[in-house]
């Protein structure tokens, strides 16, 4: 079997594509990765904005599809033995250029699609062109008879979208739309004290500082502000010494809110930490707090669990699904509920129960299981 992966250029999708590639090769499959190449994009200084962005679109949505068609044609009679897989649902329009019966796709979430269609609970906005683009993605995604959704929640939302489209004459969902949980795309383990604390010291902590941790972007749906409100309502004798935001830097609005609450001096910002620093942050936090309002999977939940951190997360799906009952879940609109969950975590017996449950839950997300599920999907 040859599996051809068509990943987006985003770093996370590249890691996902390489993980599938390596896992399938380890199982004895012949694998090729097809990627869009910069042709017109090389004429611009950047393809992230302005005229250069549109040149990049020409490479991705005109040149690359033509090259795919040419490569498929070159396979000749061998084509019947080939399985094609698109690594990211945002590239669903590529399905129009591949043999549909032999093709499958991974759907990581439908947040942007739902946002483009006007669903407020996606907490994702869309421009006028963005709405058109998300409609294009959905129309092509629903053509696929084989879709691997990374969570049962994402699958459920996709089926709901398909049902809505069916009323307008579109095809319903397929029996081969399934759930395949993501596997860890890097090693996540608790670091030893002598390894972690030099990294934490460089990040701005004093030795043995206690801290709450949030990992993620500054997107509104990540609900960072709630973490500040939670910290503010904690009794003084229950507060850890720091709040750490790892990922995107703190924006002016969040900084102003912290100042308004009088807690700005408690905050540490670790901008885009390297992997070892991220492991250190997970390994020694008092609790990992993830009050997200909208996710397709919720990677940081299991990353924190694998590093031995007790987790307090939003009660909104898919966080409970991913945590496997090994985290405390609370209303992401209630700082008091998150504060109460943290106080519960400070009880040593409860803390070790959730830590041990989390470590056990992390075993569900292994590469071998994921690869086996994809192989079955390809042959379905």
Report on the architecture of this protein.
The structure is a single chain. The chain is α/β, with parallel strands linked by helices and about 375 residues long. The mean pLDDT is about 90. A 6-stranded parallel β-sheet has the order 2-1-3-4-5-6. It has 2 domains: about 1-185 and about 365-380, Glycogen Phosphorylase B (Rossmann fold, 3-Layer(aba) Sandwich), CATH 3.40.50.2000; about 195-360, Rossmann fold (3-Layer(aba) Sandwich), CATH 3.40.50. It has helices at about 10-25, 50-75, 110-115, 130-140, 150-165, 195-205, 225-235, 250-260, 275-285, 300-305, 320-325, 335-345, 350-360, 365-380, and strands at about 1-5, 30-35, 80-85, 105, 145-150, 175-180, 210-215, 240-245, 265-270, 285-290, 310-315, 330.
Give the key terms.
six-stranded parallel β-sheet; 12 strands; 2 domains; single chain; globular; 45% helix; 14 helices; alpha/beta; 380 residues; Rossmann fold
Topology:
Elements (H helix, E strand, L loop, with lengths): L1 E4 L5 H16 L3 E4 L16 H26 L6 E5 L16 E5 L3 H6 L11 H14 L4 E4 L2 H15 L9 E4 L13 H11 L7 E6 L7 H10 L8 E6 L4 H10 L5 E5 L3 H10 L2 E4 L8 H8 L4 E4 L4 H5 L4 E3 L4 H11 L2 H15 L4 H13 L1
Helix pairs in contact: 1-14, 6-9, 7-8, 7-12, 10-13
CATH class of the largest domain: Alpha Beta
CATH topology of the largest domain: Rossmann fold
Task: Give the helix tally.
Answer: 14
Mean pLDDT: 92
> Could you name the CATH homologous superfamily of the largest domain?
Glycogen Phosphorylase B
Which regions are unreliable across 5 or more consecutive residues at pLDDT < 50? none
Largest sheet: 6 strands, parallel
Quaternary assembly? single chain
Q: Please give the share of residues in helix.
A: 40-55%
Morphology call: globular
CATH architecture of the largest domain: 3-Layer(aba) Sandwich
Number of DSSP strands?
A: 12
Q: Mind telling me the C-alpha Rg?
A: 22 Å
Question: What percentage of the residues does DSSP assign to strands (E)?
Answer: 5-15%
The total tally of domains equals 2
**Would you list the SSEs in sequence order as H and E?**
EHEHEEHHEHEHEHEHEHEHEHEHHH
